[in-house]
Amino acid sequence: MVDTPRSVPSISLTRHLIEEERAGHIQADLRLLIEVVARACKSISVSVAKGALGGVLGEAGSGNIQGEAQKKLDVIANDVLLEANAWGGHLAACASEEMDHCQPIPDVYPRGAYLLLFDPLDGSSNIDVNVSVGTIFSVLRCPDGVTQPEDVHFLQPGTAQVAAGYCIYGPSTMLVLTIGHGTHAFTLDREQGSFVLTTRDMRVPAATKEFAINMSNQRHWEAPMQDYVRDLLAGETGPRGKNFNMRWIASMVADVHRILTRGGIFIYPWDRKDPSKAGKLRLMYEANPMSLLIEQAGGAATDGRTRLLDVAPTHLHQRVPVFLGSREEVEAATQYHRAHDAKG
Ligand code: P6P
């Protein structure tokens, strides 16, 4: 008689967060806030999955502070996150890539102790060609005594984050989350309607043979960046002594998810295309949450010279060069920049 294997009890996001609360890793109000964000991501996943059938593709006919044309789903995802978080009582204010300034929780609702930042639909230029996109979020504490939160109250370094994560809308919808005690992945069980723990303690391999960058910008990079990539492309006959592969999905959530899953280095460096911008990606709601997830999984994240989580923000939508992923490769890339600077 073959014993039927005991079904391994699936651990839902709710159970995982309650166990983290019991372990003293998270307070109840932050646990409830994360559950609200997860529910909003499930709703966004439904809209994204409808594609052309949902009448949600294409341009919204508006633009955001980044100077980017908004997609209909950018606006929908932003509204879903704002509405879901308005009445919960866990937040003092929200800030978004899609909004010029932060938005305090309406006075008709109680305010909580946290500030939520998000890129509601990162990589949205990929939506119309059916490539994975995602929601990126970061949670900070609202400074004590602040009753009317303003942009300045969000300007905290990445080390101040109490939670960070993303939801990737791909072949499966997955929520990847850290509260400072490891990085864990949950897969949406559409039949149950709940996120189920599928990878506890994701680990980024220390070394890699895979890099992610938009090579079309090569002529605009600064010298150390040119040198670093030249040596990657030289392969085993070059100074790095090994051959590299390249991937670029142009959807940060998808590229970072691959790196959390199998290693690699993701780079969006400073370039001369627009010297006034320190790169393309935004510090507060793209680089910081992704850097915390990567570090909690044993990886590293710098701006080419400095640990990204230590960068002191100066404004809500500031941009920053991003090098993140396998620790040894990030350190190698950072060393090219530091050696260049040392020459003066
Ligand atoms: P490029 C998407 O627009 C995004 O903000 C990130 O998700 C992605 O990594 C990057 O920009 C892609 O930039 O210049 O390759 O289109």
TrEMBL record:
The residues the record assigns to binding Mg(2+) 1 are E97, D119, L121
Q: What class of enzyme is it?
A: hydrolase
Record field: catalytic activity: beta-D-fructose 1,6-bisphosphate + H2O = beta-D-fructose 6-phosphate + phosphate
> Which pathway is this protein assigned to?
Carbohydrate biosynthesis
The record's EC number reads 3.1.3.11
What CDD domains does UniProt report for this protein, alphabetically? FBPase
Amino acids binding substrate? D122, G123, S124, S125, N214, K280
Q: Which InterPro entries match?
A: FBPase_C_dom (IPR044015), FBPase_class-1 (IPR000146), FBPase_N (IPR033391), FBPtase (IPR028343)
What range(s) does the Fructose-1-6-bisphosphatase class 1 C-terminal domain occupy? 204-337
Q: How is the cofactor bound?
A: Binds 2 magnesium ions per subunit.
Keyword set, alphabetical order? Carbohydrate metabolism, Cytoplasm, Hydrolase, Magnesium, Metal-binding
Subcellular localization, per the record?
A: Cytoplasm
Cofactors needed by this protein, per the record, are: Mg(2+)
Q: Where does the chain bind Mg(2+) 2?
A: D119, D122, E286
> What SUPFAM superfamilies does the record point to?
Carbohydrate phosphatase (SSF56655)
- The main place the protein resides is cytoplasm
Q: Which residues form the Fructose-1-6-bisphosphatase class I N-terminal domain?
A: 12-199
Q: Has keyword Hydrolase? A: yes
Q: What family does the entry list?
A: Belongs to the FBPase class 1 family.
Subunit annotation: Homotetramer.
Q: What protein does this entry describe?
A: Fructose-1,6-bisphosphatase class 1
Q: Which organism is it from?
A: Lysobacter helvus
Q: Specify the taxonomic lineage.
A: Bacteria, Pseudomonadati, Pseudomonadota, Gammaproteobacteria, Lysobacterales
